[in-house]
UniProtKB/TrEMBL annotation:
Belongs to the glycosyl hydrolase 3 family. One of its GO terms (cellular component) is plant-type cell wall. It comes from Musa balbisiana. The keyword Hydrolase applies. The keyword Hydrolase applies. Pfam families: Fn3-like. It comes from the Eukaryota. One of its GO terms (biological process) is xylan catabolic process. InterPro entries: BXL (IPR044993), Fn3-like (IPR026891), Glyco_hydro_3_C_sf (IPR036881), Ig-like_fold (IPR013783). GO terms for molecular function: alpha-L-arabinofuranosidase activity; xylan 1,4-beta-xylosidase activity. Keywords: Hydrolase. SUPFAM superfamilies: Beta-D-glucan exohydrolase, C-terminal domain. Residues 102-172 form the Fibronectin type III-like domain. This is Fibronectin type III-like domain-containing protein.
Length: 179
């Protein structure tokens, strides 16, 4: 109870805390529990695959991870971050025999969990009511600066250049940050 570290520590066998950093075997995934129905997901064809940054912006190598180029969110500024918005549309279908409400949870993740990156982070959620066999589309509005960035050890928020992944259920959708 006195150990409040979030990140896992393999040297001591500490599994970490919260869905973002826990590397043990959970009983239920974060946000999911018992249900009388099963649901499937699919990213719609119109979901963005790339976010383009201005060529005049200079990414910097991080001291702890020299192979990753990142943009400091504070340096990007309010106007640039305001332009880096995308939408993700997810189709959800109730395959079970019962109607009910279902949480559609949208996560983002990076290609690796090295250098303190979380395994995933929740970037959006919506609850939908679906009748048995019914399908629906759920749209999420995302800001790259807010939803695809991460916090460094020194407290700076950075946006990594390269691949990022959106996850809903077992489905993944790749988004590339390109300059």
């Amino acid at each position: 109870m006195t150990d409040m570290r979030m990140r896992a520590d393999p040297a001591t066998g500490y599994p970490g805390r919260t869905y973002r950093f826990y590397n043990g075997k959970p009983v239920y995934q974060f946000g999911y529990g018992l249900s009388y129905s099963s649901h499937s997901y699919e990213f719609a064809a119109g979901t963005a695959t790339s976010i383009y940054l201005n060529n005049s912006l200079s990414p910097q190598a991080q001291p702890t991870d020299p192979n990753t180029l990142s943009y400091d969110i504070a340096s990007l500024g309010f106007n640039t971050c305001g332009e880096l918005k995308i939408s993700a549309t997810v189709g959800v279908k109730n395959h079970g025999p019962m109607a009910g409400r279902h949480p559609v949870l949208l996560f983002s993740r990076w290609p690796s969990t090295e250098h303190g990156r979380p395994a995933k982070q929740l970037v959006g959620f919506q609850s939908v009511h679906l009748e048995a066999g019914e399908s629906s589309k759920v749209e999420f509005s995302l800001s790259a600066c807010e939803h695809l960035s991460r916090v460094m050890d020194d407290g700076r928020r950075v946006l990594d250049k390269g691949s990022h992944f959106l996850i809903v259920g077992d489905e993944e959708h790749e988004i590339s940050i390109i300059a």
